Amino acid sequence: MTLDPTYPLFPIFAFIGFIISLVPLPWHLQAWNSGTCFFMAWTSLACLNQFVNSIVWSGNVTNHSPIWCEISIRIIMGASVGIPASSMCIVRRLHAIARAQKVAVTRGEKRREVIVDSLICVLFPLLYVALQIVVQGHRFDIFEDIGCYPSIHNTWLAYVLSFSPPLIIGLVSATYCALTLYEFNRRRIQFNAFLNAGTSLTARRYLRLMALATTEMLLTTPLGCFIIYLNATTTPVESYNWVDTHFDYWRVDYYYRILWQMHKMLVVSLELTRWMAPFSALVFFAFFGFAEEARKNYKAFFAPITKLVRRFFPASPTAPAAKAPLSPAPTERSFQPLKSAATTATILPLHSVTETVVSTESFNKTLYGFEHDPNYVIDIKAPAPAYDLQDALSPTSTERTLHSDITFSTNHTSRRFTM
């Protein structure tokens, strides 16, 4: 049984971070945003690693899987520089665009950009992980409710090989951020032109990437400074010696929660380190998970699922609407002539689905008498002047030139003509 009062809060957030970090990956791959893709990959991998550790070692310090711990501590060490390095690649590209330099347009240029970002975000973290064997005191540690954790011997060389690289990357990113903001304000017109000149960036995406890189820098740089301060003040810094550092290397140290909770600074260090990955994932999704391109891809992703659901669970058919009864055909009426108008009217009786066309193109007829017929509904719309229906259709009004829109309507349809 775990003594962590917040359990299972961290595993939930770690798993959510693992999922949401990968959601925007497909369209960023299509846009050749290599720095952003590496950021998502490292963040998702770190969240998955912390999720497994927090579940397996909840309430215990048993060495369930030494092989997993060997892999887990290297993921922790790699992510500690992989996430800041990815952020640096993002802001480095933004700085090049802000300076209105030549951006990668052709496939070959984009491939070169991906190679450079891969060297920074993949090769450098792998080299960093390999060098940790120089300062690694023993195999690994297991903290109750935390899981596997790397053990670094506190020597002066550890500050060079282990503690300083994340801080240095954060400072380089901070420099790029400052230069990017300066160039952005100085070359605003050229900047807008470059965003529309064959790049996959828009102004909104550019600002979101800038905000993401700045937020990540504000997380990793203070954390790196705090870890250096913690190691330098809580334990004595020893001189480096390979034999002393690797004495009894294959041992595993175990720390129950009731013991490591007694050291407040250690608690802060452990919690900040493991919460950094889920928090980075949430920040990334907040910037890119609700963007316009994200919503479009969500619709494209769920469209086949919705189609499949509708195929297996079709909507219930609705009952057909009842048809109106047919009424007898209307009888023709005689009309008196109307002057200055040759019109064609389509007239439908009420509750009828048939129609009779009365045309005055071949003979003149008057509409007098329709206003008294209960089988018809007549609507007259006249712009100006407005005439009364009886007045408009009376024989005495035939000397006037009428320009009225008359609509004959039924319950099913309507027809309009102009006189």
From TrEMBL:
Main location per the UniProt record: membrane
GO biological process: one example: pheromone-dependent signal transduction involved in conjugation with cellular fusion
Keyword DNA damage: no
Regions crossing the membrane: 6-25, 71-94, 114-136, 156-182, 209-230, 272-291
InterPro entries noted in UniProt: GPCR_Pheromne_B_alpha_rcpt, GPCR_STE3
GO (cellular component) term, any one: plasma membrane
Location of this chain's protein in the cell: Membrane
Signal peptide location: none
Coiled coil: none
Membrane-protein topology: Multi-pass membrane protein
Keywords, in A-Z order: G-protein coupled receptor, Membrane, Pheromone response, Receptor, Transducer, Transmembrane, Transmembrane helix
Gene Ontology MF terms: mating-type alpha-factor pheromone receptor activity
Domain of life according to the entry: Eukaryota
Family per record: Belongs to the G-protein coupled receptor 4 family.
Stated name of the protein: Pheromone receptor Rcb2 B1
Protein species of origin: Coprinopsis cinerea (Inky cap fungus)
